[in-house]
Amino acid sequence: MNNLIDKMLFAMQQQNLVYNYNFLYYSNKEVVDSKLFYNHPDGWLYNDIGEDGEISFNNSTKSCLIQKSAGESLMTLNQVISEFPRSEEVLCGKQITAVAVIENPKAANYNFNITFSLFDGVSDSSKIIFFKPGDKKEINIVLNVDDNATKLIVELKSSSPKAIIYVNKIYANIGEIALETLPCVVNGIIGERKQYIVTENAPAEELSLCNGFSELTDEYTRLKSVINNRFGVNNATGNPYLINMGGYFSRAWDNNSGVDPDATNRKSLGNETIKGDRVSTIENDIFLKHHHGLDFSKDKQILTGDKGVATVINLNSTSNTKDESEGKETRPKNIAELYTIKWA
């Protein structure tokens, strides 16, 4: 009993390594023809090479819903849970316990097998569990992370045709007991933009958005899943770009409010399919067409002292104000800040 209590107390001091463990965040959901569609959940990488595989969200069960393709191709859902600063120091040589809660709905017509695994680049731990309609099971696995581990991945996979898979939650932490209620190792929301006024260096958990169009490498898979190629892709490497906010002012999304009269003409910095009144699109600088009035009386003569009356103003000719002799843009008073995006 004391040994179990010690294990529990140790686990209670850890952090959940799985980001979005209960599938609360779906940045890439969208409304099409007044209907809400969910894409892959934030932080997770989904792949099914079959033609009719699909991932979404089931509101009644609050679960990630996977509809496996008809063939026997492999479906995977995984997350690189080692993506945080100094993760090797934290994880190498440690025991990791992970839990997945999976359901096959009663109304389903198909059985399926699920493989649940942890992999550290050197070794893995996995279990294959059979589900028939109506089954809801908790799968528990343990991995002793190798001292030379290069990553840590938690993964579900299945080759069962047409399986309907409800993934309620997946969580993992250091220790022999996995606890669902632990705070996440990611403190905040991946993809969150932050700004700083006292430094030009992004914190370890964030990337600068003022370094030009930098690429996201394989070290940032969870952020990749959130950005979802929104700012374009380097065709040579396949890596998505981060947005370059250097020198830009921010403006709140119009969202059909009518305050931004040119919202439908907005353009993307990289992805041509994202345009119009959408988050992350840009507008070039422009001046609103206007007139500068000239304050004079056109029914009076201009007197010039002892020289007599001056020539009458020609009202048919055009008149321009003088150009501003300084500056290269029109701008309000401003302060330069470092913009960053959270990746861990």
Automatic annotation (TrEMBL):
Superkingdom is Bacteria
Protein name, please?
Tail fiber protein
Gene source species: Kordia aestuariivivens
